[in-house]
């Protein structure tokens, strides 16, 4: 409470008009310095916020590019795996057909000769 200024008195007791004018000017200068300091802080904070927003924008752009690259890679791998699965199925079907031919053809040929 010792830091508080006394309430404003436009006509303080005692002192000349010049002293009152000087005191008023000092008070105005003090208020303007406080306002200037507050504005400088606000400008500094706004600039820092702008820098943070720019950094965030750069990070989101980079993440978007990475996600597109990942999506393309994932689609490529999915297609490769589909072809690999198809090749395996075709090999199994061909193997079964060959096995059936190996089993059925000799028994049919043997039954015709008998």
Automatic annotation (TrEMBL):
Residues 1-27 are annotated as: Disordered. It comes from Endocarpon pusillum. It is found in: Endomembrane system. It is a single-pass type IV membrane protein. Its main location: membrane. GO terms for biological process: protein transport; vesicle-mediated transport. The lineage of its organism: Eukaryota, Fungi, Dikarya, Ascomycota, Pezizomycotina. It holds the Pfam family Synaptobrevin. One of its GO terms (cellular component) is membrane. Belongs to the synaptobrevin family. This is V-SNARE coiled-coil homology domain-containing protein. The chain crosses the membrane at residues 88-109. Residues 17-27 have a biased composition (Basic and acidic residues). Keywords: Coiled coil, Membrane, Protein transport, Transmembrane, Transmembrane helix, Transport. PROSITE patterns: V_SNARE. Residues 24-84 form the V-SNARE coiled-coil homology domain.
């Amino acid at each position: 409470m010792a830091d508080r200024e006394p309430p404003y008195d436009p006509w303080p007791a005692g002192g000349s008009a010049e002293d009152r004018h000087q005191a008023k000017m000092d008070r105005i200068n003090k208020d303007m310095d406080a306002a200037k300091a507050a504005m400088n802080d606000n400008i500094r904070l706004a600039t820092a916020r702008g820098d943070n927003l720019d950094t965030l924008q750069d990070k989101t752009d980079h993440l978007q590019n990475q996600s597109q690259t990942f999506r393309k890679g994932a689609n490529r791998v999915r297609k490769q795996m589909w072809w690999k699965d198809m090749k395996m199925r075709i090999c199994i079907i061909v193997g079964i057909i060959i096995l059936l031919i190996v089993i059925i053809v000799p028994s049919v040929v043997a039954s015709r000769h008998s």
